[in-house]
Amino acid sequence: MNFLLRFSRAVDWLNGQIGKYVIWLILASTVISGVNAVVRKAFNISSNAFLEVQWYLFAASFLIAAGYTLLNQEHVKVDVLVGRLSKRGQIWVDIVGFVFFLTPFCFAILWYGIPFFLQGYRSGEMSNNAGGLLRWPVYAMIPLGFSLLMLQGWSELIKRIAFLQGRIEDPTSKRGEKTAEEELAESIRRLAEAQTKSS
């Protein structure tokens, strides 16, 4: 079990680091969207590449951060029934979910997603839109995102089993750490303050 807990900590660290940086993709997508709208209205010009890169970035942030979201227990849960169970009962529901639902679902997506990505990569598939982008980079987000989600599911499974054995504290209790959004806002504030001091 000690080896599994070390594996769990490594997966938690990996998804935690990814979550801290993937949030910037949403900011980039928002900025590109805003600039594209202004340029289109002001100069009556636009590019399909700008439109596509927005959904590429959004898809990447959504898929790659799925494991981070699970780490921070931000996925939607149906607590109407589960909330009435004891803590051990809730943990068992999570275990069943990770083993019989999350893991097979991720395997199925990877089973079909990896060949889909490889086919797009080998063929050099391009968007059908004029000025569109290569498709394989966004296809790569499918196996990458679901691999990270599956690893995080296994990490959560290990932590719940360890909790039932009395080895660790409740893994479902919220941590007092800042969210990725709070860290992003703080980084933006620090950048603005640094620019104000330098000018």
Describe this entry's structure for a reader.
With 199 residues, the chain is mainly alpha-helical. Helix content is 77%, strand content 0%. The protein contains seven helices and no strands. The longest helix is centred in the first third of the chain and has 42 residues, at 2-43. It is globular. The model has no long low-confidence stretch (mean pLDDT 89).
Which short descriptors sum up this protein?
single chain, 199 residues, globular
Strand content: under 5%
**What is the molecular shape?**
globular
Number of helices: 7
Task: Please count the beta strands (DSSP E, at least 2 residues each).
Answer: 0
Q: How would you sum up the major sheet? A: none
Q: Helix- and strand-based class?
A: mainly alpha
Mean pLDDT: 89
Q: Secondary-structure element order, as H and E? A: HHHHHHH
Terminus-to-terminus distance? 55 Å
Helix content: over 70%
Ranges where pLDDT stays below 50 over 5 or more residues in a row are: none
> Could you state the oligomeric state of the chains shown?
single chain
The radius of gyration over CA amounts to: 21 Å
Task: Produce the secondary structure layout.
Elements: H1 2-43, H2 48-64, H3 66-71, H4 79-82, H5 87-123, H6 136-164, H7 180-198
Helix pairs in contact: 1-2, 1-6, 1-7, 2-6, 5-6
What is the structure about, briefly put?
This protein has 199 residues and is mostly helical.
